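May I ask you to comment on the folded chain given beneath this request?
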Amino acid sequence: MKPNFQNYSKRNLIFFFVTTALLFFSCTNKDNNTVKQELEKYLQTEMQKQQIPGLSYAIVLDGKIIESGALGLANVGYKVPTTLNSKFNIGSIGKTFTATSIMLLQKDGKLSINDPINKYFDSLPENWNSITIEHLLTHTSGIRDYCQDHPGYPLLGGATGEGLEERKKEISELQFIKLVTTAPLNFAPGERFAYSNSNYFLLGFIIQKVSGQSLSEFMNERLFTPAGMTETMRENVPVIVPDRATGYNLNDNNQLINGAYISNFYSSQGDMGIITTAEDLTKWIIALEGGKILDNESLRQMWTPCKLKNGFEPMDAYGDYGYGYSYGLGWELNCHNGYIENGHGGDFMNGFSAKFVHFPEKKLTVVALTNLQPWKISQPGVDVYKMAGFYVPELNAIDQFQTASTADSSLNNTVYDFYNQLMSKGEFDTSVVTINFKERTNPIVEKLIIENPSNNSSNIHVNCIKTDLLEDRNLVRWGVPVKKINYYKILEEGETPIYMALYFSADNKIADISY
């Protein structure tokens, strides 16, 4: 767990366990069939709206799989239905496995995350000498991405950076390292955060060098088998895999097409490279929390936000969870509706998207796997928060909340100023936000906003729809005690409504943000 987020009294703990027991009883006995029907009705609606061919999901509550299901088609051409045995590529969720492998090797005494990576690679550029394994794990190395996951920074140079055709080629580890090291760093190691798949390529190479095993051998032995993940394996493109779902994309005309072919090299490295079922993936979190893989201290390290040279945890500009999320060691870290969230998203050009979120305080995990990667930001896939809300209403998506008569509208002008500053300048003064919030902000935000300015601020309307007063909870965000959470609907003329939660300190300054 991450330190200093929540400190519970005995009374709080008793209340939590009673609530969890009641929720579990309700979901598994009284309303289980109804809840599943309503959940699947939502999923089917989204699948139809977004042209998602097939989907598999699983829900964990209190360490047990309480629900799972499969909808649609695993293969459209042959009309093969999706089943609970259908295997999907989970994309960047694979980073959680790579990071855990590194932590296991550290526990074995075979490496330290503080090691400079030039200990494991020959002839690196001089300005790479300060890059450590931890920099790779936390995306703070400055190494350019061979994909395009972080806007505002240039792609890795050379043909790979130009797109799909290069990723159809089989290349070697040495060729990839040469490609990476000939490109300038985006920033000095430890100065900023920028998500880069190249980091996890290098981590995969280190795992193999240190363990003397392939990624497949190491993860089968140390991760999949102990977790009981019998349906999970490393990707190997040429191999025929029973029940493998077929991946799909949407073209520029919004038509379903076969997923892009990606070479086995680019499909099987440490940045992703795992195929699994929804139920098997839930066993991953059950095993981690149950101590079957790592000790508690290593797990706490993975789930603690990284820090930059300036001592602040970085807040990214964009990501699977929108503006405001942080990163640990291979895990995306967020706070949703005031509850800590650990997880990761994943998608891959060969036609898959996956979402995996875990709420440790609520003992709830949601997994959703689909065989569509639409290449369009406007099609985000199913909303795992709405899925969570069927089982724990407090975790619902903000746009599902009804406007409450007790909603605190007194800070609407403050939020208006905040949103206007964010969308027009990409920066904030401390009359609106805490210094901790301001210092956490990725410096690239200002550049991104200037390149994509918002519409006229006079057309922005801010409405508070719900307020949570945190009198009985000791919620601390980035060193600042949070006194209340306000949930807002922000309307900007001609745009889709934006829903956000803002976390306020005692002096009504914004300490955190989530969506």
Q: What stands out?
A: Residues 455 and 494 are 9 Å apart (CA to CA). Confidence is low (pLDDT under 50) at residues 1-30.
